[in-house]
Amino acid sequence: MPETAGAHRIHVLDQATVNQIAAGEVVERPASVVKELVENAIDAGAGSIAIDLTASKDAITAIRVTDDGCGMSPADAELAFVPHATSKITSIDDLHNTRTLGFRGEALATIAAVARVTLVTKIRGSGAVPGTRILIAGGKVLETTGTGAPDGTSVLVGDLFFNTPARKKFQKSKNTELAHIHDILEGICLSHPDIAFHLTYNGTEQLVTDRTTRPEDTIARLFGSGVIRDLVPVDASLPLLGITGFVSRPSLARKDRARMFISVNQRFITSPAINDAIKAGYGTLLPKDRFPVAFLNLAIDIHLVDVNVHPTKKQIRLSREKEITEMIRNAVREALLAHDLIPAAEPPGSMIPLVRESPDTPVKTYDRSPVPAPSGVFEFPHAGTAATDQRLRQTELPVGPGPAYLVSSLLPEIEVIGEFSGIYILARTYDDELLLIDQHAAHERILYEQVSGQEQEKRASQELISPVVLHRTPKEAAILRDLLPALSLEGFVLEGFGGDSFLVRAVPVVLGRIEETTIIDEIISDLISEESAQAVSNRERITRIVACRGAVKAGTTCTREQCQRIVDQLRRMKNPFTCPHGRPTMIRFSRKELDTMFKRG
Ligand code: ADP
Ligand code: MG
Fold first, then answer.
1. Ligand 2 geometric centre to CA of 304 (Å)
2. Does the reported pTM lie above 0.90?
3. Which of 132, 510, 528, 535 could form a disulfide with 74 if both were Cys (CB 3.0 to 4.6 A apart)?
């Protein structure tokens, strides 16, 4: 644009645009809308909160949160949508005294800036006085009417991001969003056992908790009553903080921190420092790369906690963090000690010595139910599968930003729960589905996509420690000679070795440092014996064979970690549902289907 003297190139953005930009910080995705609305309901003193999600085939289309809280007057209901309008603080000083989850007055304004919102509200206990209904879209109030309504507030958010297409496009798959919503609600339910939550998805119940004074009821509701057995209570009243809740026995340890639920003053937060402190409480009870399950509620003097670090308030800043984390570590340690779970030997390092309250307190024990006879579903082995591990390690996919399919997933998170016959992995999703996964087919899919992902004309090779000699019949040798150029592009370094023999010097990198060189023989045999009237290209043919022969074989015993690695990788595939030949990698049973099979009505 040519510059004209006196013309402005700089201008102040209008409020609607400002709100849309700001929306990115508070409402980056459907799950953040759920979080903000539910937090408002909690702040309104609700005893029960319903979250109803509507979804089309590929996206969440509407979110409704209904509460029985204090409700709003007609005037407040309109004000609620004005940016920085809040009833929770009046000055910066209040910020450090507030116990409410919200206080920035941003959520409703920003949600209304990027969606169509219908709010229905009525002041609790206002009897026959009618309630208020407000329709607002893209930040503009379209309609305000009086209406009959139950006490409390209901906010319906539809058409999310309708006016910010870039953000809309950025949305992950529906399943990823649902997983996020579950994560957020689990955290909120656990930090508020005194509130009943009810989540539905297209009318089907997904998550239900009752009002309770026993947090373990909520835990059981969310994760099954089985976990309670493996939890150890923590209850400590210390100078700077109170800690209540549960940590797991080491046997329940996981490979990530996803089941460490921490709330500080009834706000569900994530805090690496607190997670580390909890883990430190286990000392050497847990391997370096394992994390306990924890459900801890911390009551910390509010003056020591700064929640205003980020608009979403998921992180906190603690004053006297070192002292506080030390106390957490000791409290966890003491709880484990009280259950005789910590071996006598002190782990190396500067552990603060612990004194049991009374040395006479009898040590609590749990009976170990007898191990059932082998039945096909068995305990995972812990070692002795180094060869399998080697085969699986070579399929590690790069982490971090990459093609879209690496960061979003067609499948919700999957947790391995068992293995059957050395062929099938038993797993569950956080969507309450039971999965039977064909170990070989799944790994085959992983290798296949890994190889196909290498776009270059000539794919990477891995030199063999010692070259392998292949002997063939004259006819086979002739076919093989024809295929040498194609094989070379796929990363095989193969040369004639006199007569009808060949020397293999290198293989595609995806096969790694293979030790059982029979794989090479199998691959070449498959290639030669396959019908040549194939519709697919040589590249595709070789890729499929390499994936098939490189994958763990049915009947290979895998450890839990190995199985988990397979399913975690499978989740990252473009098409996780079939192997390259089109056979299914998994069979899914939803809770509903199982219930029907068991005639549970
Ligand atoms: P904040 O929660 O930070 O105050 P919000 O934009 O989320 O900001 O909400 C603005 C105001 O609207 C709140 O301070 C509260 O007074 C009112 N409000 C929002 N949701 C509800 C609700 N579910 N019940 C009663 N009042 C509500
Ligand atoms: Mg709020």
1. 22
2. no
3. 132
